[in-house]
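Q: How would the structure tokens look for this protein?
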Amino acid sequence: MPENKCSYLNKIACATEVHLQIITPTKPIRLKTRLIGVDPNMSVILSMGNNSEWLAAKQYIREGQKVIVRLMNTEQPNANIVAFQSNIQKLMSIAGRWLVLDYPKELQQVPLRKDQRLPIHIEAKLLDPETKKVCSAGFLSDLSIQGCAFIGEAITQASSSEKYLLQVPISDNIKSTIIVIKNRKKVDMQSGYMQYGGVLEGDEDTLKLFVEPLLIEYVFH
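A: Here is the predicted structure in token form.
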């Protein structure tokens, strides 16, 4: 792994929130926890929870189990999402209930900045904000805190500055926010799909609650 990515992972603050995904033969199991620390080039140590979700996943929390780890590091001026695949190295209960993971061989690091659109592909819909009727079904092709590009079915009589309810399913939940359409263009002649570029409406804290889970879900999906 490149040295700069290694050093970034090694310096992530303890207690950073961690989204842990356990790979199973059926449906992936998703758990939330926190970072205990990183032993450079050796292991990544997470706290083991004791709530109902962790108890339900107990049979899969064993040595050698494959996992995906996603961390949102907001301690720095420019927040970053860090994601990697790993395996459970061992379970420890000497100084606490710890989950020790192998140090990753590959790391994905995505900066989360207001002015940077990140390429994604997440199923989404545009709804009439009042009637909640679906106006277009498609997907988000890029996303940032401030805006996004939506590709989907052409909306009849859609105009610039028109508002829609952007709805995105994620982990058995539905996230939604208001989008103000600023531009549109045809994707290709065959599909008839349109790309709608828009600005997400709301204050920064509200928009982060909408955007961050989508990016965490998408990175290393």
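The chain has three helices and 13 strands.

The chain has a mean pLDDT of 86.

Upvote if useful.
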